[in-house]
Design a protein that fits this description.
There is one protein chain. About 80% of the residues lie in helices and about 0% in strands. With about 280 residues, it is mainly α. Helix 4 packs antiparallel against helix 11. The longest helix is centred in the C-terminal third of the chain and has 27 residues. It is globular, with a radius of gyration of 18 Å. The two termini are about 25 Å apart.
Length: about 280
């Protein structure tokens, strides 16, 4: 029963994150800073009341690491949203999933975590997928590739920082730091570029934060309910969902090379999860 619940949670999470990305893609006519601002507002609507209700220390105790996580989160989020202006949504999401490669490299230097030769090989397969998408994929702009890889690099930093913090901070505190920084950053920088949304656009903007919150919530619940090697690969369902949405909603075109590149990225990273889990036993 717990296993089925964990799988269901991760499916819900993948759907929520896919819908969040789709909303961002749809609203790409707005400046990226305005999108980041609304992403934070929709999430803070949930997190701040929960932190206060549960009487969790609002500012946490490891402020330096929380600030670093927040800054890295804002940069990663902004770059990812910016990449959606240049790339199809399925391609952007797939390329951003190279983050574990950078996380492993950062962990090697800063946390002294070892990487097995087979893991380097799997990372190479995933990176080969990136090169195939860039070299042969349909309409992959260099600027979009730059932004999404930069987003993945900073997402890798986030993974390492969260690992460094461990269980010392409540997850809501970590999310709050990230969202508060996004709120300030996006709010201040969007003033110059602010465009008044229509009623429907207001709803879509706020839905970005709502989908983001529930995506994070259900992903956390899934990892709490069942082993990582079972639920983590299901997260990559987000790629399939976004490709379907991109094809039917945005008219995105994915040629055979793009699909091959995506398969290589996902295969390398999913098998790496299996290797890491096997190593931990």
């Amino acid at each position: 029963m717990t296993q089925n619940k964990a799988i269901l949670y991760m499916i819900f999470s993948a759907i929520a994150f896919a819908l969040m990305g789709s909303m961002v893609k749809y609203l790409s006519t707005f400046n990226v800073y305005q999108v980041v601002f609304f992403r934070s507002v929709g999430t803070l609507f949930f997190t701040i009341p929960l932190v206060l209700k549960q009487k969790i220390p609002f500012w946490g105790t490891h402020k330096k690491w929380l600030i670093i996580r927040g800054i890295a989160g804002v940069i990663s989020l902004t770059c990812f949203f910016q990449s959606l202006n240049y790339l199809s949504i399925g391609t952007a999401v797939s390329l951003r999933y190279t983050a574990p490669i950078f996380a492993a490299i950062f962990a090697l230097f800063f946390l002294k975590e070892k990487i097995k030769p087979i893991q380097w090989f799997l990372f190479l397969i995933a990176f080969l997928g990136v090169l195939i998408i860039k070299g042969f994929g349909a309409d992959v702009e260099t600027l979009g590739l730059f932004f999404v890889i930069l987003s993945a690099i900073f997402l890798g930093i986030i993974f390492v920082v969260i690992r460094k913090i461990g269980n010392a901070e409540h997850p809501l505190v970590i999310i709050n730091y990230f969202m508060l920084m996004a709120f300030i950053f996006g709010g201040l920088l969007s003033i110059k570029y602010w465009v008044q949304p229509s009623l429907m656009e207001w709803i879509l903007f706020l839905s970005i934060g709502v989908f983001g919150y529930f995506g994070q919530l259900y992903m956390t619940k899934a990892f709490q309910a069942e082993e990582t090697n079972l639920v983590a690969p299901i997260k990559y369902l987000e790629v399939i969902i976004t490709i379907i949405i991109g094809t039917f909603w945005f008219g995105d075109i994915y040629n055979g090379w793009t699909i091959l590149g995506i398969v290589l990225i996902l295969s390398g990273l999913i098998y790496n999860i299996y290797i890491k889990r096997k190593k931990a036993k």
